[in-house]
Design goal:
Elements (H helix, E strand, L loop, with lengths): L18 H4 L2 H33 L3 H39 L1 H28 L1 H8 L5 H14 L2 H17 L4 H24 L11 H20 L2 H6 L14 H39 L8 H35 L3 H28 L1 H9 L6 H33 L4 H24 L5 H28 L4 H32 L5 H25 L3 H13 L4
Length: 565
């Protein structure tokens, strides 16, 4: 955890200067680096967690039931609270503290109390509605697979309460300039799930199906998965106390406070409902593709689980860099918007975007070229075959195409939220949601069953390109320009610097594939290490030759935050 006493993005600027924000990436990236180191630890252990669960459950019908049920609390949270928290609550907390410190603390107490009560009620209702959620997301599930998925969902849905409480606690920490704990807490969750996945592997012999899973095995997976989320949330409380937050239940909202939350949250709810509708369509079609492959005798491993695991890999670079920068940036941009400092807000946005792309662009290139090696190393173990891992790789390669536009799109949305404008993202979201649904149905309708989930991921990439272009045009008009020349110029330089990386990684992949079997662990690992390291060095060399300043800024700042520095 990091508690800043001056100059942190969650605090008011001192001395009226704007250098903190506009002085380039140093201050912003220091905040981002703190989170990125924690996020890196979280995602590395998350990789291990995913690998263990895939090894334990495979990519077939039981895995589809488990993963579908485990996404239900996430999606309900995102539907009703996640978007509102990011787009509404954080800016309102910042503005409340700007108005008056004591008022800001009272406002925190009121919002937190309302959240706890609402989450408790919502969780009870959600558990009762578990069969409905499974039927929406996996209408193709029948018999034992449906029964197992519903039982998983009943045990997983209490996570909803802890997700919400943890997210509100993280928001309070962020607005007080403390960014580390929310990024490190998921490590505890990952360790718990790794342990239960390992235990499941130890007590089973070979693949387990929905028809033969025992009650004890169900309890191990269910209670262990939810227990990890509980521990992740509880771990934030010492940090809350350290920054001076003491929860005192109170609901004495002043006139207009709830109305402001509802007014701003209404458009966010429209946006999130639309995006979750698209998610429901994608999940249902992916599950249907998996069951169709089984019915046609093609085999398991072509359904929602490959899509889910590929998406987890796709999220890694964005989570380490993009989320870290965005989390540090949102309180800062909210403050600039409240003070009418459009130039400072524009500069902060431009800096954050260019710094994020320094890592995200080469990461996308490596995922695209070395996708099979990545998934072989991570997933081709236990009850998951090399062919199953290759399906995940194909889906991930489609997601890799989406990585850069997805990251840009997410950051641009935060500029609107900083202005307390939730209407514009909702309207843009309708465009992207419509595109996503059309692309998903098209993939399901025209592609061979083996390629449906790959095509759905490709549709996701097209959707994010559409969203980015639309958001860019609207945001440029809103801000009177978004530093487009520097942003485009910087990205063009990065694109040039990436080509040597792509060439080296592809050459490594081609040579290794010619002389050995890269579908096995050791050759795949060697190819991945050599291709990534050699390509990465070439990328840094060419970035330096092209004078991409953000690369050096990112390297030096993140290096100072590594343990032992």
């Amino acid at each position: 955890m990091d508690t800043r006493t001056g100059g942190g993005p969650g605090e008011p600027p001192k001395g009226g200067g704007t250098g903190q924000a506009t002085g380039g990436g140093g201050g912003l990236l220091r905040s981002g680096a703190i989170m990125a180191v924690g996020t890196l630890a979280s995602r590395v252990t998350g990789f291990l967690r995913t690998a263990v669960i895939v090894a334990a459950l495979g990519t077939g019908m039981l895995a589809n039931a488990y993963n579908t049920a485990n996404t239900v609390p996430n999606q309900i949270y995102d539907l009703l609270l996640g978007g509102i928290l990011v787009s509404v609550i954080v800016p309102l907390l910042v503005r409340a503290k700007e108005r008056d410190r004591e008022y800001g603390e009272r406002y925190e107490q009121r919002v937190f109390t309302l959240a706890v009560i609402g989450l408790a009620v919502l969780t009870v209702v959600a558990v009762l509605c578990a069969p409905l959620f499974i039927d929406i997301l996996a209408g193709s599930f029948t018999g034992d697979q449906r029964d197992v998925a519903i039982l998983f969902a009943r045990f997983f849905l209490p996570q909803l309460f802890f997700y919400g409480v943890g997210a509100f606690a993280g928001a309070i920490l962020n607005t007080r300039g403390s960014f580390g704990a929310p990024m490190w807490a998921p490590v505890l969750n990952n360790i718990v799930v790794i342990a239960i996945g390992g235990a499941f592997l130890a007590i089973t012999a070979g693949p387990v199906t929905p028809s033969d899973i025992t009650d004890g095995q169900m309890m191990l997976l269910s209670l262990g998965t939810t227990g990890g989320i509980v521990l992740q949330t509880v771990a934030l409380w010492p940090s809350l106390r350290r920054v001076g937050f003491r929860w005192r239940p109170r609901l004495d909202f002043q006139r207009g406070e709830i109305g402001e939350v509802l007014r701003l949250g209404a458009w966010t709810l429209v946006y999130v409902v639309a995006t979750q509708a698209a998610f429901a369509v994608v999940t249902a079609l992916a599950n249907r593709a998996g069951n169709l492959a089984v019915d046609e005798g093609i085999g398991e491993g072509y359904g929602y689980t490959p899509y889910f695991n590929a998406y987890q890999l796709f999220q890694l670079p964005y989570a380490i860099v993009g989320v870290s920068v965005i989390t540090a940036l949102l309180p800062r941009m909210s403050r600039f918007a409240a003070e009418g400092k459009t130039a400072d807000l524009r500069a902060a946005f431009s800096t954050g975007l260019r710094l994020s792309s320094v890592i995200i662009m080469p990461a996308a290139a490596l995922m695209l070229v070395l996708g099979p090696e990545i998934t072989t190393v991570l997933f081709a173990h236990g009850n998951t075959s090399a062919d199953d891992a290759l399906v995940i790789a194909r889906v991930m390669q489609m997601f890799a195409i989406a990585l850069v536009p997805f990251s840009i799109y997410q950051l641009m949305l935060r500029v609107f939220y900083a202005h307390r404008d939730t209407r514009t993202p909702a309207l843009i979201g309708m465009v992207t949601v419509t595109t996503n649904i059309i692309m998903a149905f098209t993939a399901y309708s025209v592609l061979d069953v083996r390629w449906i989930v790959v095509g759905i991921a490709g549709g996701f990439a097209i959707t994010n390109v559409v969203g980015t272009l639309t958001c860019w045009l609207v945001l440029r008009r809103k801000l009177g320009g978004i530093d487009g020349r520097r942003i485009v110029g910087g990205h063009l330089k990065l694109a040039v610097a990436i080509w040597p990386l792509i060439g080296f990684a592809y050459a490594t992949h081609t040579v290794a594939d010619a002389v050995g079997d890269t579908s096995t662990l050791v050759p795949a690992l060697i190819t991945l290490v050599v291709g990534s390291a050699g390509g990465g060095i070439l990328y840094l060399v060419f970035a330096k030759l092209l004078r991409v300043d953000e690369v050096q800024t990112a390297i030096s700042t993140f290096a100072r935050k590594l343990p032992g520095r």
